[in-house]
Design a protein that fits this description.
The structure is a homodimer of 509-residue chains. With 509 residues, chain A is of the alpha/beta class. Among the domains of chain A are: 169 residues, Spore Coat Polysaccharide Biosynthesis Protein SpsA, Chain A, CATH 3.90.550; 68 residues, no CATH class; 105 residues, Jelly Rolls (Sandwich). In chain A, 25% of the residues lie in helices and 29% in strands. Chain A is built from 13 helices and 26 strands. Chains A and B meet through strand 13, strand 14, strand 15, helix 13 and strand 17 of A and strand 13, strand 14, strand 15, helix 13 and strand 17 of B. Strand 13 of chain A pairs parallel with strand 15 of chain B.
């Protein structure tokens, strides 16, 4: 097929509460570097880079995550600017997200083939993945719905299963490497997460695979399946389509709703959001795959993990001789088969067995591996208590660098702010706080109202309340300042922006 | 007896590595508030307050801990100034420490009776303790060496045992409440920590008690026993005595070597230290109690724990319905029989069983209760690696308030400094760093060379390198400042003091 018609749709709306405290609402699992050399989302992009044209890589995420994900792509360099982000007004599980992408795509490119990929899975061997992907595309071109099945290695009860019609596969299919269907198996049915007894039976019987959640199909095909199996969803999307592609707002196929919302009428945008919000949350597995009769499967030759919980690290990470995975500033005596993730702080462990310890600057988690699924209960408790530790990290990455909250006190807050060379914050003003800046490395260019001056290492500046100001790093090294905020109200939303290099109007720093 | 002859000798030289990370070399176990309303040392003092005259309460500790212990007594108010601190040149276990106190005491008050108490034990019921103590004193006046035995409630292998001669006790002794010997038991022998089998046998046989490490005797009696059983120690102490009580340096019996060393010749002081350093470390139990034939025991009617490790908290702390001891900022789901100690940071735990989790701002410890004795191995590892986490806390208490290291970076360090009302730091100078102070609450009086000014909340001051300066809290509320240090060398020993309210010449802040 013509690569111009091949699109990678990366689903990045998940909140990943199961990797708390490393994941937070503002830093979900896909934005974490848990395994491998980069974050899971960026690894997912790199996996198809060169195979799918850059402008055909689309990320589907929710409105509230879109800006952070855009900033998160920065390290990808020029590629980042090519990638499209499609914003869901709200999270409604995978079927609506995929349907939204399909309806956009269909307008843009009726011949398109979609490769749907979760953004938070681990696939260490990209070559095998691409080989299998090619096979899947061949199937998709025959109007199959194609998925990837992972050969089960244990009676896992945390995954859905796929049962194929014939197993073992017909030998002559396997023997013909040029046969487009090579390895493609007709799927008998999709099965939801089984109990242990059933899972054991699947393993001994053979012909059952783990459902990887990666799908390949023609856009036209999935739309007709949605029309068929999820008619309400289809109808709503059709209504939205007419709002999204209004004649007075020319469809900008290469920039769907992105990077910043075009100046379309707020009313129409709100209507879309209303439509989408009314959608029933439903997964593509349950809504389509379990119902369709045209599902085929490629048995994956690649290693895979969905990293469903901290305990899943065992499948995919290298362990030491005692079976431990130790990362960061850990001092251990006699532990076995345990996962110890620390950051800067010291974590000392003695004689742990099958335990998980995860440390971050503001929260530490300790549990047996067997309880890894219950991390979400902790997150729910924190939400319920209106705590901050489920929401945001002490260090927050921004397009211009990062800031770290070192301490919050009564009427003061201390941050370390790091600016990349050449970066600058927005021209801004705070109504309720003043700020002291002490430069601890680099040189700062400081604007206060009409005055501008350079503040060198070991010098300081004072920004009085209600003063329009800007911080800039004119140098070639990172600029680090310690900011002491003082005032009655010290939250991030006390900010009025006048100019911003990053197209932000109203959001945190 | 005349109370004027009764002395409480509190042994406070221990480093308490087993309570790491809450205990540190600069903040040993006796200075921690682990159980009860105050720190273990201050609880020990309060236990005998009113029974022993204030000036007869002596603390024996090592030279390096003496200043911190002196500051630690401040919250006791006027009592603190009466308490004497006897400095050992170096730690040599309990026999030399007790011998040193005895030889001082004997000069001062030959008729004295010494009550020897560890500073890091828990005794919740002071009334019962004092009742038992009175009985012990009656025995001491008969020239007995008297100890307290704790009725064992389990076959503990972590304690030494005391076997009494006759058990059960002669009934008619118990029936005569006015009989001075009431409850006093002649000791058959002292036994070192037994194995489990032996401990079980002790329990079933009866007549065995845990050795509490609390002793009562006449000063003259213990000196004659030391002369008898530890002749080398006795000889060395006699040599030291002649150095300590030189004619040209009048013996100041009420202020032995304290609070700051009198202007005795450095040579003599060094000689003493040399003598003491050569002493063989030996415990009073091994050196005297196991050998003497004149040991008697009071069976304790008070509750007691030596808090030998984190696991010992179970004996003495209230547990919730699940058997947990939770303190601080902990969120737990389904844990049982576990100890979770947190400070400000969030500790989230799921499904722990018989575990210990202790969090401090710079280090967290996780282990099963059964490994609690191995905490010292972690401390040894940290020492070996020249880490700081075994040595000092992020927050350091000082006589004028406290400071907390919020962050250390390359060429900068950030502290929050809190000054008590009316307190001031020394007039000082740093050779290698400058300091920015931002006042976040209260008002600071800042001296820079000859200039003095008031800095209010939300104002700042800059202390250039090599500038003589002083920080003072002239107000009636605590003063809080954020200090950003900047320079090539940022350790506490870059300080030159010119005046100090706390008699400090050269030490940390």
């Amino acid at each position: 097929m013509n690569p111009i018609n091949l699109f990678a749709i990366i689903l990045a709306g998940g909140s990943g509460t199961r990797f708390w405290p490393l994941s937070r609402e503002t830093c979900p699992k896909q934005m974490l570097q848990i395994v491998g050399e980069d974050t899971l989302l960026r690894q997912t992009i790199k996996r198809v880079q060169g195979f799918v044209p850059p402008q055909n890589i689309w990320i589907v995420t929710t409105e509230d995550k879109a800006q952070d994900i855009r900033f998160h792509l920065d390290p990808l360099g020029p590629l980042a600017k090519e990638i499209r982000i499609l914003r869901e007004p709200a999270g409604r599980n995978t079927a609506p997200a995929i349907a939204l992408a399909a309806i956009y795509l269909h307008k843009l490119c009726p011949e398109s083939v979609m490769v749907i990929m979760p953004s938070d899975h681990v696939i260490p061997d990209a070559d095998n993945f691409l080989g299998d992907l090619k096979r899947a595309i061949q199937g998709a071109l025959k109007d199959y719905l194609v998925t990837f099945g992972i050969k089960p290695i244990r009676p896992e009860t945390g995954y859905g299963y796929i049962k194929v019609k014939k197993w073992p596969a017909v030998p002559d299919q396997r023997d013909k490497p040029d046969e487009p269907d090579r390895g493609l198996q007709k799927v008998d049915r999709f099965l939801e997460k089984p109990d242990l007894q059933a899972a054991k039976a699947f393993l001994s019987e053979g012909g059952y695979f783990w459902n990887s959640g990666i799908f390949v199909w023609k856009t036209s095909k999935i739309l007709s399946e949605i029309e068929n199996h999820l008619p309400k969803l289809y109808k709503t999307l059709k209504e939205m389509e007419s709002l999204l592609f209004l004649p007075d707002q020319p469809a900008q196929p290469n920039q769907p709703n992105e990077p910043d919302k075009p100046d379309e009428s707020d009313r129409r945008s709100a209507l879309c959001a209303q439509c989408y919000a009314k959608l029933e949350p439903i997964s593509i597995d349950y809504g389509i795959m379990e119902k369709s009769h045209e599902v085929w499967m490629v048995p994956a030759t690649f290693q895979w993990s969905d990293l469903g919980s901290w305990a899943a690290l065992d499948e995919i990470s290298e362990r030491d001789r005692e079976g431990n995975i130790l990362r960061g500033n850990a001092v251990d005596i006699d532990s076995q088969n345990s996962i110890i993730f620390s950051d800067q702080r010291l974590i000392a462990t003695i004689g742990l067995n099958e335990m998980v310890v995860v440390d971050t600057p503001d929260a530490t988690l300790v549990m047996p591996k067997g309880r890894a699924q219950d991390v979400r209960k902790i997150v729910e408790t924190l939400k319920h208590k209106h705590r901050e530790e489920h929401f945001i990290h002490r260090t927050v990455e921004r397009p211009w660098g990062s800031y770290t909250v070192l301490e919050k006190g009564d009427r003061y807050k201390i941050k370390r702010v790091v600016l990349k060379p050449g970066a600058r914050l927005s021209l801004q003003r705070h109504r309720l706080r003043s700020e002291h800046w002490v430069v601890v490395s680099g040189t700062a260019k400081v604007t206060r109202e009409d005055e501008t001056c350079l503040i060198h290492t070991n010098e300081s500046a004072f920004i009085p309340i209600k003063t329009k100001h800007r911080l800039e790093n004119p140098g070639e090294e990172p600029l680090q300042i310690i900011e002491v905020q003082s005032g009655d109200y010290l939250e991030e939303d006390d900010i009025e922006r006048f100019e911003d290099d990053y197209g932000r109007t109203q959001s945190t720093r």
